[in-house]
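can u do me a favor
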């Protein structure tokens, strides 16, 4: 019985933790999802789908931010090193 009680408590805590995410959309949708999860045996599927959707949105947002930041390679430094290498090669030919 303790295992079932722990599972039920976990069921209640997970949507509440997701609901604490500061988003107007989450605050409107998650209570309905939690209510549906309480009254159906498909709660795992519902929560999985919801968390997958949230993860997808967060990943897309993160990808946009990474693309906006630009290349992680320091282009100016790379150009300077390339120029130094060319100079060394020229001197080595002499």
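np, heres the sequence
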């Amino acid at each position: 019985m303790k295992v079932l009680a722990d599972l039920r408590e976990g069921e209640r805590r997970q949507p509440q933790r997701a609901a604490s995410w500061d988003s107007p959309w989450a605050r409107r949708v998650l209570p309905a999802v939690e209510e549906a999860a309480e009254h159906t045996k498909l709660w795992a599927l519902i929560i999985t789908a919801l968390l997958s959707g949230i993860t997808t949105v967060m990943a897309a947002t993160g990808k946009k931010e990474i693309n906006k930041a630009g290349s992680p390679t320091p282009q100016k430094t790379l150009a300077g090193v390339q120029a130094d290498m060319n100079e060394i090669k020229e001197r080595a030919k002499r």
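The helical segments are 2-19, 24-38, 43-69, 75-93. hope that helps!!
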